[in-house]
Structures are given as structure tokens and as C-alpha cells.
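Explain this fold:

***
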Amino acid sequence: MDAFTKADGEFLSGQTLAEIAGCSRTAVWKHIEELRKEGFEFEAVKKRGYRIVKGPDRVSEEEINPELKTRFVGRVIKYIESVPSTQKIAHALAQEGAEEGTTVIADEQTEGRGRLLRSWHSPKGTGIWMSIILKPQLPPQRAPQFTLIAAVAVVQAIEEVCGLSPEIKWPNDILLNGRKLTGILTELQAEADKINSIIIGIGMNVNQKAEDFPEELQSVATSLFMEKQEKVSRVKLIQRVMEKLEIYYDLYMEKGFTPIKLLWESYAISIGRQITARTITGSIHGKALGINEDGVLRIEDAEGQVHEVYSADIELK
């Protein structure tokens, strides 16, 4: 594969490949056939040889790292084809001292989960299921802001790669045309006065068709494929999410939350709308005013009282 990568789309003759690999031309042909079974597409032209037309839609370190433009996010990737949950593995790696930016990526999750321990449907080969370890030198109360940082990164990555216009639903959902596309789960490893690690889990529906979702999700979930009617490169999207996350992480650490807040509110679907926030103590009805400097949702009820909501399920009117 190194020879094809270096060839940058040019043809390589069977003889050249045989010399590089130190084998016969028949062995080269057999190897090409094996690669085709793995999902590679080759163009074969008599007297010119072979060239790669398209590689498999894999999300391993080998596919992601070569064109990744980050300093630390995603520079260490642990790719596992099938896992119960990328969050669980990332937690274990963080406790073992994994470096900042280490990312766990799976092709399938069998026990994917979102906020409040809800399950997240994560079928094989269709979406982005990854968890990123960050280690900001901050007090634990600042951790919830990282969900909002990640949301801005995800939205901008989708805009740039897919040309679509997703919106953010507080606190952790990305929607397209009113249907859920992406969930973000931020979890914390901390001491009383400092964060040890923040684990940001991102689950994104990329190439699912409607029939790939369980029946109970088909009316509320969507995918990038369903919106564009064409396949999207998971590798390009992962790269762009990582790049955007690093940019806004750096901005946050340098300038604080205010610039992130302004960006987040520009993508928020609920600002200025009537909503119901269902909390563990009851429901609050009113107009969503935005978020404060801590990322807390502010709701003005019919009597003019402003409520600050730290955790809730949001229903849009």
C-alpha cells in the first residue's frame, strides 16, 4: 500500500510492484485481488498497470493521520473495529496517563450511550463514534463548557465538508431539519480543585439510510447521507472535527468562553423560541434567552422571571 500512496494516483506497472514487493507478478495480482475484497477499488490498464481509484471507508489511524492538520488532537488514535463504548475505553486510557488529544475511534459500538445513560444506535461502518481526551488546567466547574465547544466544532466541520447547515439544541444535540444528527457526551475525571481529564464523546450519523435506524428512531433521527443523498467521507469529517475542536479549545484557553458563547448562540435553534425544559425537579416553560458565561441555559417564563437551567431535556414549541 505504501507504493500506491507514494504514487499519488499514478499507475504502477505489475513489474514495478513486483520489484518493490520482491515477489512475482502473479503474487502482485493476487494481492490486488485481496485488497479489492477489503474495499479498495483499482483501475487496471494494459501496459500501464494499476492505480487506486478509491480506498475503503475505514476510520483507522492510517487513514486519518496523514492529512490531519492538528498539533495534538487525534495525533494518537486507538482504532478498534467493534467496542461496547468508546467512552469506556477513553476513560481507561486517561486513567493510565494517555497524552492529551488521544482519541478512541470505533467502526461500531454495541453499547453506545448518550446523556443520562440513554442508548445511542451505533451500527457498523455508517457513522462516527469517537471519544477525545482533553486535559485543560481548569477547575471542574468549567467542564460543561466543553460540550458547547465541541458542538461548535462539529457544526462547522459539517458545514465545511458537507455544505449543510446544522443547528445546535442545548445542551448536546446537533440537528438537521429538526432531526437528530449528532450527540455529544462530555464526562469528567477530576479532583476537588482541578480537572484531570475531560472525555468528549461524539456520535454522528453519517452514511445511514432510513432503514438502518430502528423503527422508533426513524421519525426523529437523520444522517448526512439522508440529507445529501450521497455518501460522505467519514475520514474527512473526523479530520475536520479534530481540527476545529483544537482551534476552539485553543481560543477558549486564550480568550475565555465569551467568543465560544457568541459562536454557539449563532447556531442555536432554541434562542428566542418558546421551549419547555424538563428538569429532575419539574418543567419550566418560557422563552430561551441564550446561555450565560458558564454555558447555563437562561429561560424567561410568562411572569418575566429568568430561570437558569443546568441540566434538562429541551422540547421546542
In short: The chain has a mean pLDDT of 89. The CA atoms of residues 38 and 76 lie 24 Å apart.
